[in-house]
Amino acid sequence: MTTLPSDGVGPPGASKLMSAHDAVERFVHDGDSVFLGYTSWANALEWEIARQRKKHLTPIATVGSILLPLLGCADRLITAYALGALSPWFKERLYAGEWQIEDYTNQTIALMFMAGALGMPFIPTRSMLGTDFVSDAYYPQPNGFLGKDKLRVIESPFGGEKVVALPALRPDVACVHVQWADEDGNAAFWGGHGEVRWGLWASKRIIISAEEIVPRSVLRSDPHRVTVPGFMVDAVVHIPFGALPWGLPAYYKSSLHMQRDYFAALRTEDGFREQVARWIDGCADHAAVLALYEERYGAGSLGELRVDRTWEPERPIRYGWKAAQ
Amino acid sequence: MSADYSLQEMMVVQAAREIAPSRSVFVGMGLPMLAAAIAKFHINPALAYCTEVGVGDWNPDPAEVDHAPNGVADPILDRGAAYIGDMVDALGAWLMGDRLELAVLTAAEVDRCGNLNALLVGNPSRPDVRLPGSAGNTDAACLARRVITIMSLEPRRFVERVSFLSSPGYITGPGARRAAGLSPQGPNLVVSTMGVFAFDTPDGGDTGTCEMVLVRTYAEMPAEAVAAMIPWPLRIADDIEECAPPTDEELRLLRHLDPGPTYLRPGRY
Contact B62/B41 with Cβ under 8 angstroms? Predict the structure, then answer.
């Protein structure tokens, strides 16, 4: 009997559920570019990557985290907004050449993902025209906006209008946190999407962490909910509060306590190392992070982040195709 | 009218008044979120309030709104929205596709030709300040039909030429937007803590000097005092007007929407 070649993971229908440790160990490799979604923050997965000290990564997100460069896990950040970049320590090391930032914009990163998802080599935009991002005067810059071979002002082959050619982005792996996923990897994110759909669709491998694992029938009964279908997904991890310290629409708010402590700690290398020792290396997994959270911020403090969930669609849609009896 | 208000509050209230006549607005991070919320809830309930993560026409029951969105992705924006999509929708189809009338932005620096800088201050190869980045600021400044910029008037923020041009206004002057491949834009405004500025160009950047002109002052803030804060010889409009101080209702709503305060906490802007 002939077996057709397959790039699928495991036998068809096998559960893709696994631990964060196993998903990261198996699907995030040294040297990878990693899409970490904004609005769908996979913070628990990012911390697992940090815990395993992967090397030479390139995190990509419109709103990017500086954790992995600071920890020596990443050489370069591709982002439109590097959260925490105001840290004097981060800046000093950036301009000392320890890591680089490729600066784009929210729109251009989303479009570069779209080009990657569609298998195109580049995509045109009219954003960035007239800016110093596309000005030769600023290149080469060793540590920032590496524009010369990244962005190019070209003329439309049709009307001759100027456009910026953006190279496609195809991350090696995506780590995204969603509200619901099932064991097949079908994943539903709701709330402002940012770049999450195109980032996922552009990525070669996909790890989904989900607040809840729902039975397989749930999302297949309402496929309009699905952000990425399971046949594109490699691993599913069940991680309650997996976006913490960020929020997740319809589940919990951002933890202002934890964010304040985190950004305060970023100001110095000592402060940062202390945070890493406590929250990442000091915790075996995200369950341990949550236990530590309650220990530090008070019993019941996680529950206080929960949001009121009484709002539901006034009239759910219905599907159908058979002639009505 | 109320005598007890700060210059920051005056700036945000005046920005709300300038935003309100539009039908649709792209609302950038920071103070624009607060000013556009006041414009919507106090002056123009039909204003379509949109953000870059893909929220289209946020239209909640005002009685439910206990704070202005704390960012472009605050889930409060999902409540009553006509549409929730993504950045390709908002920054691609709505902005680049010319579906919105106005963008409201803020930045670290603004210059004589209305260019903004949200990336770094100082020498680009070794800057004094490295900001997080431009996010959607560049996209909106390039692509929006009109821009209102909300900026505290401080010497470090109003500069003759931005140290990094992340977000184009009129770039180097007349004709520069078109030469760069961008559409004309305007009338643009800069709403500051000390007055409101327009730009000397009748056609969105093709002709005129394209430089900043003081067009509206605030109570007890004469044009000469504003000009003294600006590092280039500031032009003052012949028909300059004085804005009314914030009303009690404007201030009440502003303070209700900014509990804490978060947006106007001392030292933030």
Answer: yes
Q: Is residue A282 part of a domain?
A: no
CA–CA separation, B74 and B87 (whole Å):
15
B87 in reach of chain A (CB within 8 A): yes
Of A167, A187, A204, which one is at a domain's C-terminal end?
Answer: A167
In chain A, pLDDT over 90 holds for what percent of residues? 84
Query: What domains does chain B contain, in order, with CATH numbers?
Result: 7-257 (3.40.1080.10)
Q: What is the mean pLDDT of residues B39-57?
A: 98
Confidence grade of residue B269 (pLDDT, cut at 50, 70, 90): very low
Angstrom distance (rounded) from CA B229 to CA B190: 15
Q: A181 and A114: one domain? A: yes
Q: Are residues A27 and A149 in the same domain?
A: no
Q: Which of residues 34-53 of B touch A (CB under 8 A)?
A: 51-53
Q: By the 8 A CB rule, do B149 and B116 touch?
A: yes
Same domain, A102 and A216: yes
The boundaries of the domain holding residue A151 are 122-167
List the single residue in B with minimal CA-CA distance to A63.
B135
- Give the nearest chain A residue to B93 (CA atoms): A107
Q: Can you give the CATH number for the domain in which A223 is found?
A: 3.40.1080.10
- Measured in angstroms, the CA of B223 and the nearest CA of chain A are apart by 31
Give the whole-angstrom CA distance, residue A73 versus residue B139: 30
- pLDDT tens-digit readout, B186-232: 999 999 999 999 999 999 999 999 999 999 999 999 999 999 999 99
Q: Which of A199, A182, A304 is nearest to A238 (CA)?
A: A182
Q: Which of A94, A107, A201, A255 to mutate to test the interface with B (most CBs of B within 10 A)?
A: A107
Rounded to two decimals, the ipTM of the complex is 0.96
Asked whether residue A311 is assigned to any structural domain, the reply reads no
